[in-house]
Amino acid sequence: MLRGVDLRVEQAEVVAVLGPSGSGKSTLLHLMAGLDGVDGGEVRWAGVRIDPAAPGLAARRAAHVGLVFQHHYLLSELDVIENVTLPGRIAGRRVDDEGRALLEAMGLADRARATIHALSGGERQRVAVARALVLGPSVVLADEPTGSLDRASAHAVYQVLRTAANARGAAVVIVTHDEALVADADRHVRLDEGRLAVTEPLGAAGA
């Protein structure tokens, strides 16, 4: 349960959410995504209040929010590139070029036609990240996106997420235990027992 959390994330900003297990990090992300409702207060996207029960919220989320979960939720009946570009097909947009560019950025260009069963756990997670970014969302919410990856793959995924902020102007929120990986995030937000404990602006650590 979260208590008294007040957090604003700007466009083109990367915010890392840190804290021990059970501190409320994933809960915060679910609330920001509109997957769960708040008991008090409100959640806004681009200044517009969201209500998880409101008709049309799922369509708005699909169009504007890229979600990366701890589990990849890939479709085994589709190959890699088909999974990555699925949001585009649902939205009626051709995003094959974007999908292949994202796979290349994460070292998976040669796996575009592979089946999901042929991928390692880390490869599946990278495919899930590519799928979340393929429509160029204005908000990216990533829950432990590098938890199952080796150091090189984790760095590649983090750089792609940074590019989403720096080049595309997305607001990016990353829940992680890997503080070293996100050392250059614009802010570090720390949760402790459901409360926002510390917010560190870029460069605060060691200043």
Structure report:
The protein is of the alpha/beta class. The chain has a domain at 14-75 and 138-201: Rossmann fold (3-Layer(aba) Sandwich). Helices cover 33% and strands 17% of the residues. It has 6 helices and 8 strands. It has helices spanning 25-33, 57-64, 80-91, 96-105, 121-133, 151-166; strands spanning 14-18, 44-45, 48-49, 65-68, 139-143, 171-175, 187-192, 195-201. The strands form 2 sheets. The chain has a 6-stranded mixed beta sheet, with helices on both faces. A hairpin with a 2-residue loop joins strand 7 (187-192) and strand 8 (195-201). Helix 3 crosses helix 4 (96-105) and helix 3 (80-91) packs parallel to helix 5 (121-133). The chain is globular, with a radius of gyration of 17 Å. The two termini are 32 Å apart. The model has no long low-confidence stretch (mean pLDDT 90).
CATH T-level fold name of the domain at 14-75 and 138-201: Rossmann fold
Number of strands: 8
Indicate the mean pLDDT.
90
Count up the helices.
Answer: 6
Query: Helix and strand succession?
Result: EHEEHEHHHEHEEE
Based on helices, strands and strand pairing, what is the structural class? alpha/beta
Low-confidence stretches: none
The general outline is: globular
Largest sheet: 6 strands, mixed
Q: Give the name of the CATH architecture of the domain at 14-75 and 138-201.
A: 3-Layer(aba) Sandwich
Briefly, what CATH class of the domain at 14-75 and 138-201?
A: Alpha Beta
Tell me the name of the CATH homologous superfamily of the domain at 14-75 and 138-201: P-loop containing nucleotide triphosphate hydrolases
Distance between the termini: 32 Å
Strand order of the largest sheet: 4-5-6-1-7-8
